[in-house]
Specification:
445 residues, alpha/beta, Rossmann fold, 10-stranded mixed β-sheet, 15% strand, Serine aminopeptidase S33 domain-containing protein
Length: 445
């Protein structure tokens, strides 16, 4: 159990090299020069947050520009903000991104699905407001980052607008759904016990209550203009989570559904909608009338590629350059993502296979041999009999019962209580262990 809880609150950190996986320190995008400024911000817990701010080399008229803070998902990092930068920078909207505490290269031990990340976001907003180069602020979050943005936005009505991509509506509901999504035949009492155990363990180790992560309650008190987006084929955080947030939301709102799942590249029309949304709520300044910028055949390249530009004679004839076909924003995103793909949420592949193997064994031979896995929790009845002397050979779904496991005292702790538990189908106990494995992936948001 300890290992499973650690897997939840301490998933593998995204690994990346800022020199190779972020946009260049200076780069040209659609004929204009931009820069990446790397910096550090400390949160209220004294964790150092690694951050990057993408902005024009020369601000229009030297005025402060609006900024969108990109908030990555649970398995992500600030490298995932490259798409946002490519989409928003040409509109004179700067993009700030960070590794949340416990993620990427930032300090911090645990990931908390938005609970502590909300405080990280607060520290970044405070930094930007004292920086002097930022006017209005917007938020763009994906998965865990969307939950973080919503939770912060409800507390800071000065946020100009938010894009929430694939948020969950209630963490406990999501846990329960994951059991059904991955076809695990799990008795009700085991689900309730697993969630209750994890709630207590996570609260003890990471100091946050999973039962408090309910964005529907937050949405009822949030008035920041919002654009929600969700893939129709998302079977990790299903689309109805965004629907529930949308229905409860009190402010101006819109929702977009698109083809794809939780990890799919987002379609161009969705990016266009985001660009229009942020242009409306942030009101960025226009470039000076008559300003001329070269329209490069390749819409993005770093400063290190400038010699290549000359080698290809891109600048020999300005008229030829202007007439050359240009790639779309989608092509530029593909170019950048070829260097480092967007962070993905990977469901452990052995869970469904283990459950199917168990089902085959039960149907084919009537015997069961418990799999050996460090991710599994095994039970050994003290009487030494694999199914116990009084356990029925099968049990219908209607016979499943829900036990009031409001405290750990109801869990067997001695031989007598173990005998009482042995009255339950041993297969249920096995499914309990599989259920824990399923539930442990929920932090991969």
């Amino acid at each position: 159990m300890e290992q499973l809880v650690n897997f939840i609150i301490r998933p593998p950190r995204a690994e990346y090299d800022p020199k190779n996986d972020l946009l260049d320190e200076e780069f040209m995008l659609k004929g204009k020069w931009y820069q990446r400024k790397d910096l550090e911000v400390k949160n209220s817990r004294d964790d150092v947050l690694k951050c990057s701010h993408y902005m024009p080399l020369i601000r229009p008229e030297g005025k402060p520009l609006p900024c969108v803070i990109y908030c990555h998902g649970n398995s992500g990092c600030r490298a995932d903000a490259s798409e946002a930068a490519i989409i928003l920078l040409p509109s004179n909207i700067t993009v700030f991104t960070l590794d949340f505490s416990g993620s990427g290269l930032s300090g911090g031990e645990h990931v908390t699905l938005g609970w502590n990340e909300k405080d990280d976001l607060r520290a970044v907003v405070e930094y930007l407001r004292t920086d002097g180069n930022v006017s209005l602020i917007g938020l763009w979050g994906r998965s865990m980052g969307a939950v973080t943005s919503l939770m912060y936005g409800a507390e800071d009505p000065s946020i100009a607008g938010m894009v929430l991509d694939s948020p969950f509506s209630d963490l406990v509901d999501l846990m329960t759904e994951l059991v059904d999504t991955y076809k695990i035949r799990l008795p009700k009492f085991t689900v309730k016990f697993a969630i209750q155990y994890m709630r207590r363990a996570v609260l003890k180790k990471a100091k946050f209550d999973i039962a408090e992560l309910n964005t529907i309650k937050v949405a009822k008190s949030c008035f920041v203009p919002v654009l929600l987006g969700h893939g129709v084929d998302d079977d990790f955080i299903q689309p109805h989570h965004s629907d529930r947030v949308f229905d409860a939301y009190m402010g101006d709102k819109n929702i977009i559904k698109f083809e794809g799942d939780h990890n799919s590249p987002r379609p161009q029309f969705y990016f266009d909608s985001i660009s229009i949304f942020f242009n409306n709520v942030l009101q960025p300044p226009m470039d000076e009338a008559g300003a001329a910028f070269f329209d490069m055949p390749r819409d993005y390249f770093g400063k290190g590629s400038w010699s290549t530009v000359h080698e290809l004679d891109y600048m020999d004839d300005v008229h030829d350059v202007a007439a050359a076909p240009t790639s779309s924003t989608e092509d530029v995103i593909k170019q950048v993502r070829s260097k480092r793909p967007m962070s993905r949420i990977e469901v452990p592949s052995d869970i469904s296979a283990q459950d199917n193997q168990t089902a085959d064994q039960e149907e084919g031979t009537g015997t069961y041999s418990a799999p050996s896995s460090s991710k599994m929790i095994s039970f050994e009845l003290s009487n030494g009999e694999p199914f116990g002397p009084n356990v029925p050979a099968s049990i219908d779904d209607d016979d499943y019962v829900e036990y009031p496991l409001d405290n750990m005292a109801d869990f067997p702790s001695n031989v007598d209580e173990e005998e009482r538990v042995s009255m339950l189908n041993f297969t249920e106990l096995h499914h309990f262990s599989i259920g824990f494995s399923i539930l442990c992936i929920l932090l991969q948001l």
